[in-house]
Design a protein that fits this description.
The chain is α+β, with helices and mostly antiparallel strands and about 325 residues long. The protein is about 25% helix and about 35% strand.
């Protein structure tokens, strides 16, 4: 039987999405700091607080079980994912808008059984995830200096409406959160490259070509959405060398699932470019994440596998 790495796209972004990875971490770790200067007087302070809070927020994250709908030029599938201290484990439950047929379902069972029997595969993927996180953390520390931030206005925004992911064969129940009003207030900020900042290495060059806008919820200072685009061709290094073409876009959205619990809910990436300067890259990716629910903090990946095999998808 072929041995699977149980690759999880949410934890290891496509190579052309390297420019989104560091912003994604910023997106997930913005924290409340009500005593700090307002964005009207110091927009960059929001970014500096997010960087300072990153490690604490990551350490406090409670593992979750959730549903991911991923669609790109080649595939359209829905999978369940469970986070564990040994890395995430996933199980596909639908493809191309239909439930898995018996053969496809059995292939998922066989893949998880193989992963269960070979801890080295899970450890290899966990290390790969850690390497990506380390790269993103390094770039994250550069954010306050790499961009110029501008506070534009305070606007109404929705923060607690997660995506609706129809699961074929399962009756959908609309998700909602009673932890916050349907409409909140958000700071609208824009950002652009700082022309006086020099990237220290090839991995940092990605920050020189991006500009965009963000919405940050005012009460907790949590980032609710980000829209950005490449304003020039940029080189990147994210394990390989390549470049991304001008015009690429990234959209990220975060939803408040419960008090003090904000989770990534939508991501759209559109990039073209080249890897190794010769291989054409085309990424047109949409991901939606929903049905978040906490799992025991000490859950290991073997237990997660058994949960995915035994339990039906959430309703």
């Amino acid at each position: 039987m072929a041995r699977s790495s149980d690759h999880n796209p949410r934890r290891s972004l496509p190579l052309p999405a390297a420019c989104a990875a560091v912003l994604l971490l910023l997106f997930l770790t913005s924290g409340s700091a009500q005593s700090e200067p307002s964005p009207a007087t110091d927009a960059a302070a929001l970014v500096r607080r997010a960087v300072a809070n990153h490690m604490a927020a990551a350490a406090a994250h409670h593992p979750q079980r959730f549903v991911l709908h991923r669609k790109d030029d080649r595939r359209d599938f829905i999978q369940e994912i469970i986070e564990t201290r040994q890395g995430d484990v996933s199980f596909a439950i639908a493809a191309s808008g239909a439930p898995l047929n018996p053969e496809m379902h059995q292939a998922q069972i066989d893949r998880l059984d193989d992963l269960d029997a070979h801890p080295d595969l899970q450890e290899h993927r966990r290390k790969h995830e850690q390497e990506d996180t380390a790269r993103a953390n390094k770039l994250m520390r550069m954010l306050p200096d790499a961009f110029i931030y501008h506070y534009d206005s305070t606007v109404p925004c929705a923060v607690n409406t997660p995506p609706t992911i129809p699961i074929p064969g399962v009756q959908s129940v609309a998700q909602s959160s009673d932890s916050a009003p349907a409409s909140s207030q958000c700071y609208h900020l824009t950002f652009k490259p700082n022309p006086n900042w020099e990237p220290p290495d090839i991995e940092a060059k990605i920050l020189r070509g991006m500009e965009g806008e963000v919405l940050i919820e005012t009460a907790q200072e949590r980032l609710t959405s980000l829209n950005a685009h490449l304003i020039t061709d940029v080189d990147f290094g994210w394990g390989i060398v390549g470049h991304l073409d001008k015009g690429g876009t990234v959209f990220l959205e975060q939803t408040q699932m419960a008090p003090n619990d904000w989770e990534l809910s939508r991501m759209k990436l559109n990039f073209t470019g080249k890897a190794f300067l010769v291989k054409t890259l085309k990424v047109h990716l949409t991901e939606e994440m929903a049905h978040y629910a906490p799992v025991p903090p000490n859950l290991d990946y073997h237990q997660a596998i058994q949960m995915l095999k035994a339990e039906p998808p959430p309703k």
